[in-house]
Amino acid sequence: MSCTLVPHTSDQPANLSLWLRQQLTGNVRESPTSLFALIDITRLSQEQHAALPEVVSTALQHHGVNLYADLEGTILADAGPRLCLVGETDLNDWALAACSTHLVHFMAGYVSLADLAGHLQSLREVTLPGGSQALFRFQDCHVTTHLWPLLTPSMGNHVLGPLLWWATPDICGPWHVLSLTPGYRRSAALRFDRVIYDRLNDQLLVYTVADQVREVDAALLNGMSACQVRSLLRARLDAARRLGLVLQSDLALYAVLSLQLPEGFEHQEPFANAVEQNRRQVSSFGAALDRVTSEQWTIWNDELANQ
User: Fold this and answer.
1) How many CB atoms lie within 10 A of CB 57?
2) pLDDT tens digits, residue range 44-67?
3) Domain boundaries, the chain
């Protein structure tokens, strides 16, 4: 798939603005005529929203297209991502918003705002391996960051439609740019096969675990950047897999416990026995811990207090 990386743009607005200008003015014959920004407003915190440059805030409130607006009467209607046309004079403001939030996509092509909105609305549902339909959250930068490298050329061309490229930010570094691949027809429909579905879910697990950790104790991740959180939790998930844990619920549970308990806790009872039961396929890690008696937990708590 034609997915490339653009380094040194993730947290440097000047570099991102320069890169965007180069895309617009580089080669006249291939240069796109229109630049667009897509933003997932549901993930904007109050602080982030208040800090948006006035140009961006105004565009979102008065000029952006709500891609879920046609779902009137559903809970999704007001939560739709906003698609905005970006003028060349506004590039610096949009670059600043993008680098400060990591929630803004940029895309370009020979297409109007209305036609691009229609295309993106046609992508809202994806067919899963079992044949069921699911909401495709293409506005979620976490999803697209990990999905772009997995797409075949035909699937990529289907996603792009009238676009020449679609750039999405990675919280840990460069922008991932999905580009049109000449010579490949668009796929007939957007469908995730088992390989893509499983790989994508595996990559996205870390963000689910991060939310679970914050629900348990937000202080565990205090002072850490989004990138640092992802790196830490991926390391903990990898450690869980080395122990033989496979179920996502077990992986998540181990990651949460690893942030709460002393290093090496998994080699002490009752955790060591739960790991062993999982290894022997007698029980899942979580189910084994659910069966631990109050007396066993008392012993563990006493030992922990003496450490």
Assistant:
1) 15
2) 888 888 888 888 888 888 888 999
3) 3-192, 198-306
